[in-house]
Specification:
about 325 residues, 15 strands
Length: about 325
Amino acid sequence: MGRTAEEDDARWLVVTDGAARTTVEVAIRSALTTQRDRLTRLEVDVASDADWPADLRATVQLAERRLAANPRSDISLTLDPRDDEDFEIALALAPCSIGCTGIGTSGKPIWDANDTGTSAAFALSAAEEHVVRTAITDAGGNPDDLVGLVEYHLGRRIRSYSVAGATTPATEQWRPPAGWRAYEHTVQLGSGDDLWDAASAAVLSWGIKTRSGFAVDPPLEPGRPARPGERFWLIARIGVIRVREPVEIVTTVLTDRRAALAYGTLRGHPVSGQEAFIVHRDDGGNVSPTLRSLTRAGRGVWRAAFPLILVAQHVYRRRYLRALLPRV
């Protein structure tokens, strides 16, 4: 069976650790409900790490009778989401079961609720995500506890540098700290308000990276600048190899004369350090980008590759400094 349009549009979201129980239950059940037409099979374990809530006892007994009638079943029931009784069993037990999975029309899982509701993830289209967030809000929960899987994994990574803010992108003069490979270079682009507007917007929205061959995940909405504290994967393609670099925005700057984005590395990045993309203009309206970076070898397998990484870094720096040139 082929993929649906909703599956092509879907992205995985998870309920964050520590979310209120109301948020967890509503997210699990509303996701299941809104995905129902895309589900072909449900697998529900009739077992819980805690006592079943009193209001579920009748449903639990029904499920247990179903299990007893099938000698090949252990604790898992296979349910048909198109059957109302089957669907109601899944809907009731999912937040309390040790394991539930929903299989989509492509034959792959698109809905999971495990470990008595403490692990929940769903592949939701944009429309489905809106429905689930609205249901959480209406129930008094926090819709911000539903986050993209990419952001969730990035949020659990620790910083791999110790020089927060050391690229000082808001200042003209830079004094790099000792013990790091420091780099600073400036080129001139041209002059004029249009050039300044385009260059400053590009700097603040990862434009230097994307114009130099990187992808950014999760991508920013068109026209939105990145914000301090946000985390991203920067994805470089080297031949057929993709290198995923986890980073965090350290600071952003936007004045009439200066725009900048500085980011630092997270554990798992090929190097340790910080980089700043800066664009500035002088009294005559001349616009210039400046690149600053502090670099050390990364940890683990990346340490041995550091000499090759420095070569690649040199190539990309040339691309960065050309990235804001006006396109004709």
